[in-house]
Design a protein that fits this description.
Keywords: Signal. It holds the Pfam family Beta-lactamase. With 655 residues, the chain is α+β, with helices and mostly antiparallel strands. The chain folds into 3 domains: 141 residues, Mog1/PsbP, alpha/beta/alpha sandwich (Protein Transport Mog1p, Chain A), CATH 3.40.1000.10; 372 residues, Beta-lactamase; 86 residues, Lipocalin, CATH 2.40.128. It is built from 19 helices and 28 strands. The strands form 5 sheets. An 8-stranded antiparallel beta sheet has the order 1-4-5-6-10-9-8-7.
Length: 655
Amino acid sequence: MRARAFLAFLFTLVLVSSLSSQNSAEKLAADTPKTTVLGNPFIAPKDWSVRVKGPATIIEAPEGDSWIALVDVKDAKTADEALAAAWKAYKPDAKWPVKVTSDLPDRDGWSKRREYDYQTSPNEKRGVGALTYYSGTAWTVIIEDLADATAEKRGGQADVIFSRLLPKGYSRETFAGKKANRLDQARIAELSRFVEQGIKETGVPGVSFGLVQDGKVVFADGFGVKELGKSDKPDADTLFMIASNTKALTTLMLARLVDEKKLNWDTPVTQLFPSFKLGDEATTKSVLVKHLICACTGMPRQDLEWLFEYGKMTPESSLALLGTMQPTSKFGELFQYSNLMAAAAGYTAAHVVHPDTELGKGYDEAMQSYVFDPLGMKATTLSFDRALAANHSEAHSPDINGKPAKAPMNVNEAVAPLRPAGGAWSNINDMLKYVSMELANGKLPDGSTYVSKEALLQRRAPQVAIGKDVTYGMGLEVDTTYGVPVVHHGGDLIGHHSDMIWLPDQNVGAVILTNGDPGWLIRGRFSRKLLEVVFDGRKEADAELKSDADSFYAALAAERKLMTVPADATESAKLAKHYSNASLGDVDVSQSGSATIFDFGEWKSEMSTRKNPDGTISFITILPGMEGSEFVVGSGPKKTLTMRDAQHEYVFESK
């Protein structure tokens, strides 16, 4: 009896120890390979904590307010059943309603993929979503339960998990060691077909793209139309806004200044530009030239302040705005994208080249003499007036009902005061000249050296990680997801979305320019399609792009169902006529017939209303291209409207 009792005691001790081990969290000192309960491999990011709760592997962010759960489910016949079982294992009391679901194509060994987006209330400051994957005989469900601020600043770390979550025993397709195909007529035709099909599926009116291989342009043309309601198609000379692709051109100018020994990548910025200042003194002193455009300083996005007040902004005031900003992560710790910091890179260079000239003019002149002229980029310009008077493409975006519409081009002028971050206009012919120079390691077509290879390539050196397969340098990303380095950068403004892509080891490059939302879908999948054509890869890009487009319009329709348009008259009647915020300026409220109008000074929009799950009321802009700006009505004694980005909150008070 004593022996049996002792054995029972030992069994209980082992069981308790096992359960305790399952529920205790392990904080990680480095990115660490892990597996789900059923053995599917993934990588858990540094500083996050991992614990196992039954079938759920729960990864918790350092802030303690955000979780990603990977839940293995054996006995489920459908994705919906698997999802229900996953929520029961992770958070059985969750009450968020599903807003929209989308089926996704098979990928990376997973099948039966489905995406779920949940409706949260804006005051929760939270996003919730789920994905169901199937492989073999079981499901793996991913639940994302993330605070907005944490999701934005730790998005690169979350990608560590998602980019390497694969079925047990599966190896991702790789093109390492494969020879690149010649881009002949058949392969070019396949890329053209992909773009034309993308136009039909996304509703983007027009796209131009170009290809270069072994130093020769093998294709450059456009499809669709430059402007809705007209028949003129874009071509290789049509100007589009290249948005954030301007950043790489800005760092190219910096590289030439390095060659001229006017600065080096490790020069403290305050040594070159004494008035440079961030809201944090320690960070200000730590910033070197290479950090201005590395997205690695811990400075967050803070775009609303220049989008809503651009009529009053100048290059000088954009830099002054930096002086009010505080880092939200440690220096070099996380990928955090900052347009204002990138603008400071260009204006620092301008001050070095033209110290006695106004910053905007100095930057424009320096870019012309250091970049555009020597590369033969004759059409590329930083002037809106010049671009709009030339062969250019208009901006477009679907309206709230998903119908194609013109978008307000004037709002894109918001980028002018910080144009080193995204203010250039260019075309396929000019951008291919730039890409060709990158592929030639700084040489021009005549063989002369434009910029040293060392200074040029330093811009691609990793400064901060985005996931496990992508690094960000200075205005350029390097992606090795499929075993070969792909250098690229995207650019996105209202109704203009672009990408430039090159494979340095294969001497192949491409540029794609689009003139409508959601053009980011086409440019995002074009890179994968290019790899498929160059290496005879698995045909995935077509299905992915169709799925992306279907999901986009399904989400748009789901949002529309929640809106009241025109805005609810009873709620509109409760609003004050004027509101003000110190950072974002004034909002004037008026009625035009049954429509409620918010006038922000630089632009205005009719508003919709939405009743949120927590009972609060939101007023939401519906102007094509600017739809989705949300103002939550306050409940206090004073009339207020609250607007947020992921890491900042702006309260407008009645006046």
